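Run log, item B.
One chain of 294 residues. Sequence copied directly from the ordering sheet:
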Amino acid sequence: MTEPGPQPNAVATMLGLLGDEWTLLIVQQSLLGAQRFTDFAAGLPISNAVLTARLRSMAADGLLVRDGRRYLPTARSRSLWPVLVSIWAWERAWVPEHALPMLRHAICGDECTPMLTCSGCGCATTEKSLVAQWGPSGSWARSMPAASTRRRHRSDGAGLFPQTMTILGNRWSFAVMVAAFVGTSRFTDFADQLGAPPGSLADRLQILVANGVLDIHDGRYRLTEKGRAVLPILVTALEWAQRWFTGPEGTAVELTHDGCGGAFHPVLACDRCGEALRVSQLARGAPEISPPRD
């Protein structure tokens, strides 16, 4: 009898759910107040068949709850707002052809860029101040989704998050980015660690280089400034996944903040006034952000 393979951990579950741009866009519309099928159809360039399938699968995955003709956000989907804000800010900064507006902080009144900070000490955080290690349920094998994630088809129209989807929308791309953040740089090391087929790995590395998040020099792949700026997306997505999908044996990835020596949990703050942020609106047109409520 064939031994069962490793069970997917929180990272694998997250990639399976968030590696589809329609899922992220439907969550965004839900947080903006869309509830009925017609609301989502009016707000997104999506076919009725695809929308029907996504609403059904998102309800099954606990991202929406169906109440008659309405699809309502759950606590699981509402807690995705830091990921959506991080994506918005990154795409605005690094994909200028989108011309996405700035975010505006309702409390200080300034346009702002969300700043990644440590929940323990409140300090601004970069990859240089983080130490990552596998947790009890962590390994590369367990962090791969069981099947390739769903992707928007090009014919569906221009996506809101096209370059983000080159990372979140492909299991190997996300794994390569995580490996690059912890210092992996050679093709053979990526292949050994991730267990990716050489053809798939070469393809994803080429795409990441073409999108400017990795650079190759002397046979080594290294994060560019644009690539390092992806960190808030990665850690907020990881935080979300480990909040909702951690297995009985424990977390998949443990992050430590060098600044305070404690476990790292990401908090987005206003880069103008330093207040922790709470999203009150996610939309085109300078959405306002307010601080958390007690």
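Observations after the first pass:
- DSSP finds twelve helices and twelve strands in the chain.
- Confidence is low (pLDDT under 50) at residues 149-158, 281-287, 290-294.
Flagged for discussion on Thursday.
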